[in-house]
Design brief:
This protein is an all-alpha fold. It contains 17 helices and three strands. The protein has one domain: Amino acid/polyamine transporter I, CATH 1.20.1740.10. Helix 2 packs parallel to helix 9, helix 3 (54-86) crosses helix 8 and helix 5 runs antiparallel to helix 13. The model is unreliable at 381-390 (pLDDT under 50).
């Protein structure tokens, strides 16, 4: 420790080179690695999770919700495309908010994002276990062992080298898109939109002959579907967490995230249109399904191919699980390196230079949350394997979405403040939507939060996010703010005159 300096009631400690040498990352990623990371983190949402919106809004409600959420993410990604090369630090959302709003704003934004990145892998691994159990007929009581096994395998791949991690991400992302492309091509000659996509009645019942209303639950169904439409794009915003592992973040970060957003928009349109339209599937069934893509493949190719098709369909879930574990580790690492979280979490692997302590710590926390909810709901039996029940649809998934929405609002606010108050920061890319795009992101994210709070099922998950954040804020107020460290993000913010 070389000394202390006070800024706005925050105590900073400078560290010698050995501190940062123990926390060094390795640059590897080019634009296509970044594209794969952005798409890979999201793509599981095109395999599972999004479809639960049909039960809330029917096909029309879910489709309009997807468009609204797509607009929100376009505004958000353009904001990030501007901020990430201007502030090319691993901290991402925390770094943006730290420079725009000071230490408290940075920490609270990082805490909201932490909720998302700890819980999103937990949601995805539960989707994986649902597919896996459907393939092999595994009894639900053994599902926690499946969770632990997948965490262990993909933590290992993430820890043993950034090059390996990005290569795995690229391969599984390309494979996932290939699986989706095969499904889209297969679905086109096997679809009947009116009969199957419109098979939900105004009372929520299944219509045997289809051709029901486009919006069976009216405008309210659109808003109720918003949290599930989020799953079509959730986690693309994690890309700036790879800034310090990008070869040229100022050039490649905007390209990677915008190429990723374009890819996801095309995929989202096709999956929302085709999956419920397949003959023998339907929106009603998908609104209660844990493996919607597998349902579509089964309807087209028959049950005889179920095992092979199920294994293929798991690729998208694996791609996201791997990519979001990457993001989870970097997010915890960045807050820890700066002292907001205990600094021991930011130590990197001596040989591979990956934040292994942060990744293991985040994984253990996610597993603890999963197991707590699992046993609180009785564990075992058939109920926990249903993605529409309390174990996922109303707890983990909505906790992750709630944390994400709060993070998006804070990032969009950061963008507006940086545009107004820090015009001198060099910006290699400027959002064509400017402050208006950021404001639209805030409005849509706030509406999504509002409808989560109104649903009593979602509200239970929200309460736990509030508890999570309250514990984090109490820690920072009592301990963390007295132990901050002049990391690159902090030095950049202080150089801009932000206390």
């Amino acid at each position: 420790m070389a000394g202390k300096t006070q800024a706005g009631g925050i105590a900073y400690a400078t560290r010698d080179n050995s501190y940062f040498e123990q926390r060094r990352l390795k640059r590897y990623a080019g634009v296509w690695s970044l594209w794969a990371l952005s798409v890979g983190a999201v793509i599981s949402g095109h395999f599972s999770g999004w479809n639960l919106g049909f039960a809330m809004g029917g096909w029309g409600g879910m489709a309009v919700a997807a468009v609204i959420i797509g607009v929100m993410y376009l505004g958000l990604t353009l904001c990030i495309a501007e901020m990430s090369p201007a502030l090319p630090h691993t901290g991402a959302a925390y770094s943006f908010a730290r420079t725009a709003m000071g230490p408290w704003g940075g920490f609270v934004t990082g805490l909201f994002e932490n909720v998302e990145y700890v819980l999103t892998p937990a949601v995805v691994v539960t989707f994986i276990s649902s597919y896996f159990s459907a393939i092999v007929g595994l009894d639900a009581v053994w599902l926690p062992l499946v969770w632990v096994a997948f965490y262990g395998i993909f933590l290992g791949l993430n820890i043993f080298g950034v090059a390996l991690s990005f290569r795995v991400t690229l391969v599984v992302t390309l494979a996932s898109l290939l699986v989706l492309a095969v499904f889209w091509i297969s679905a086109l000659p096997n679809m009947d939109f009116g009969r199957w996509a419109l098979n939900i009645g105004a009372d929520g019942s299944e219509l045997p002959l289809g051709h029901g209303p486009l919006f069976p639950f009216g405008i309210a169904g659109i808003f109720a579907s918003l949290p599930f439409a989020v799953w079509l794009f959730l986690a693309i915003e994690q890309l700036p967490l790879a800034a310090e592992e990008s070869v040229d973040p100022r050039r490649d970060m905007p390209r990677g995230i915008l190429l990723g957003m374009g890819t996801l928009v095309i995929s989202a349109f096709l999956i929302v249109l085709l999956n419920p339209s397949v003959i023998g599937v339907g929106a009603y069934g998908l609104g209660r399904s844990g493996e919607p893509l597998l349902d579509g493949f089964r309807a087209i190719y028959g049950d005889g191919w179920a095992v092979l098709l199920g294994l293929v369909a798991m690729l998208g879930l694996i791609a996201s699980f791997h990519a979001i574990l990457f993001a989870q580790g970097r997010q915890i690492y960045s807050l820890s390196r700066a002292g907001y979280f205990p600094s021991a979490l930011s130590v990197t692997h001596r040989r591979h230079k990956t934040p292994h302590v942060a990744m293991i710590g985040g994984a253990l926390l996610g597993l603890c949350v999963m197991l707590t909810i699992w046993f609180a709901n009785g564990g075992g039996g058939e109920a926990p394997t249903q993605l529409g029940d309390d174990i996922i649809g109303t707890v983990l998934l909505n906790m992750a979405v709630f944390g994400a929405m709060l993070s998006y609002i804070m990032q969009a606010v950061s963008f507006i403040l940086l545009r107004r108050n820090r015009a001198s920061i060099a910006r290699p890319f400027r959002s064509p939507l400017g402050i208006g795009g950021a404001a639209l992101t805030i409005i849509i994210a706030t509406i999504t939060l509002g409808f989560q709070l109104q649903d009593p099922n979602f509200f239970r998950g929200v309460i736990w996010v509030v508890v999570w954040c309250a514990i984090g804020i109490a820690y920072f107020g009592l301990v963390g703010r007295h132990r901050l460290i002049l990391s690159p993000e902090e030095e950049f913010a202080l150089a801009q005159g932000v206390d």
